Amino acid sequence: MLKKLLKELINAQSTLECGELGTAELLKRFLEQHDISAEIDVWDENRANITATIKGDGSRDSLFFACHSDVVPAGDAKWQSQPFLADERDGRIYGRGSCDMKGGLAAVAVAAVQLKNSGVKFKGDLIICSTAGEETTGLGAKRFTARQKDSLPKLAGIIIPEPTDFKIVNFHRGICWLKLTTKGKTAHGSVPHLGINAITSMNTLLNRLNSYKFPDVKTAFSDASTMSINQISGGKATNVVPDSCSIKIDIRMAAGVTCERVVDDINEICAELKSQTPNFDAELEIIRTVPTLETEPACSFIKKVSDIAEIDEVSSINFSTDGPYFKELNAPVIVFGPGKTELAHQPDEYIDITDINKAVAVYTKIIEDFVV
Ligand SMILES: [Zn+2]
């Protein structure tokens, strides 16, 4: 059941281009065959969130698994097998999304179905959602929390089955993606003094950004903030003074550092450069922000999951998840799932079959402990 479901989920090709509706419909059919009701929320034709619930009798708090249905594109590198035709070989299932995170999604769905089929009585609700657009803007998770926040039962905790190789993750840094554009005045390249060179202005700004120090906020989480300038474009021709130059910056924020604070700092830098150099002019645009995930490691939810899974330490990850959006549901959030983090988004992405089986077993124990 598990391998078949995972293969079908991979074959459903839920890239940004194709949308998540196919994956959501497939999952709904699978769950409904086993008497688990599921609802699909569709928008923009093919974007979709799916939420499945096994109702409890209300005598215990509920448990929430927050998955995502979308996958990144296959990429340009050559795969050994078709990225969107799941291939089982060497004890692994290969295909885009196998690891990030249809393996975890299939494992949760199968754990729920097996428990439902076993006839046990649920005391708290088991809620499983799989949202759209985690790999791009997190729009599915934002939409889910905005719509469901007031109607969900009290949650004991939230588990995100992303590939952490069974590490219990309580922290990841936040994201702040910025675009900075310097403005100038165009002129013929033979008379540069008649123009204002936007690339020269950008050079001034880049030099200043190189010495930028992030706010030093003391918290229990040690991962430091980083800034990486990853794209630059400017200029039209060798003989034209450029009037515009842009960079895109990937900032990852440590605990306690907010996007607002970093944006304020960079705006201040730009204002300072403008006061020193009258020709300097720059604009800042926020492309994307995701807050940090910071779940108190000593909270009872983490303690209990650690006991059940027999894992006695919590970890952080370098990548970001939809976790911070689910903080709005007022329950502790952890990331915990099968699959090696480093295989996500790679060509020849795979998941070990032993890992998805292990995930079914550990999710089953967790569900039993919290809501049965
Ligand atoms: Zn993922």
Characterise this structure:
The structure is a single chain. The protein has about 375 residues and is α/β, with parallel strands linked by helices. It has 2 domains: about 1-170 and about 295-370, Zn peptidases (Aminopeptidase); about 175-290, Alpha-Beta Plaits. It is built from 9 helices and 16 strands. β4 and β5 form a beta hairpin. The two termini are about 25 Å apart. Zinc ion binds near residues 68, 134 and 162. Zinc ion (ZN) binds near residues 101 and 162.
Strand content: 25-35%
Distance between the termini: 23 Å
Average pLDDT level: 96
One letter per element, helices H and strands E, the order comes to HHEEEEEHEHEEEHEEHEEHEHEEH
Q: Radius of gyration, Cα only, in angstroms?
A: 24 Å
CATH class of the largest domain: Alpha Beta
Q: Please, how many domains?
A: 2
Individual helix count: 9
Tell me the number of strands: 16
Bound molecules: zinc ion
> What is the CATH superfamily of the largest domain?
Zn peptidases
Structural classification: alpha/beta
Unreliable segments of 5+ consecutive residues: none
CATH architecture of the largest domain: 3-Layer(aba) Sandwich
Shape: elongated
Proportion of helical residues: 25-40%
